[in-house]
Amino acid sequence: MKLSILTATYNRANLIIRLYESILKNLNSGIDVEWLIMDDGSNDETEAVISKIRDDNYIYIKYLKQVNQGKMAAINHLMEYVRGDLIVECDSDDYFTDDAFFYIKNAYEEAKYEKDLYGLCFLKYDQNGHNIGNNFITEKTTMFDLYFKDLEDGEKAIVFFADRRKDYSYELEGNEKFITEARMYHKMDLNYRIKCFNEPLMICEYQKDGYSKNIKSLFKKNPKGYLKYFEEILTMQDMVGVPFKKRLYVIKHYILFSVLNKVKPSLAKIKGLLNKMLIVFLYIPGLIKTNMTFR
Questions:
Q1: How far apart (Å, rounded) are the C-alpha atoms in residues 220 and 257?
Q2: pLDDT in tens, 194-220
Q3: 38 and 154 assigned to the same domain
Q4: DSSP 57-70
Q5: CA dist 5 to 38, 62, 185, Å?
Q6: pTM over 0.85
Q7: pLDDT at 233
Q8: CA nearest 104: which of 96, 116, 114?
Q9: Could you tell me if 117 and 147 lie in one domain?
Q10: For 64-99, how does the pLDDT look when each residue is reduced to its tens digit (9 = 90+)?
Q11: Phi-psi region at 237: left, alpha or beta (left = phi > 0; alpha = psi -120 to 50)
């Protein structure tokens, strides 16, 4: 079994060595590893740091550099170099737990013949050892059901089956540089499921300049992709079993990004009478609030 680790990095020379060291700590698992790194136009010492650790020759490392296009484009470009049976994406400011590869190995042995799966889903912890979110309550599910029906609100780590993951990519709109990973997950959900394991795979440290700390700016810079994401939820999902507050979350964000894109909601595309009624009822308040928030 071979594991392909995909990392998009931008000016993280001071942190990426920590990720490298966490990979080395896991090599006693017996898993064959390749680390594919896309430098998204860094202007720090990233290239020199990677060059130095490549000289160690402990694992296969492929380093590439692109003009800054964002994390999702970076991962898309790395996919063509994947040679592993499994794929895991790990940000350059995150790192693996000491037993991560053992967890992956055991989960893979348990699930490798289950053709209805696209991935194995694990927990993420913060640096204080706290779960970022909740434990799984369902063994097999979809990412949509996990967040919209089981009401998960924290990050998870997915280890993809490479042959299934290669059929999908992060869909970016126009010149935008970001789209939520969930847009791709929901497309995969239509054909496959995930299997969940209550074991921590990664440790996350949120940076001041990271995506999660700058959500308002992220929305403003990438409105087309977000509009597509929420529109696809409302046109692809029947929303049966989704609690009202999560349905409302989707409707409000669909209106928000419709306003940011200066387009009117397309009710003809929307599934469900209740969803259409909520859009009509909430559109004017949403228009006013969005214009006040993003003016």
A1: 9
A2: 999 999 999 998 765 555 457 889 999
A3: yes
A4: -SSEEEEEE-SS--
A5: 11, 10, 18
A6: yes
A7: 96
A8: 96
A9: yes
A10: 999 999 999 999 999 999 999 999 999 999 999 999
A11: beta
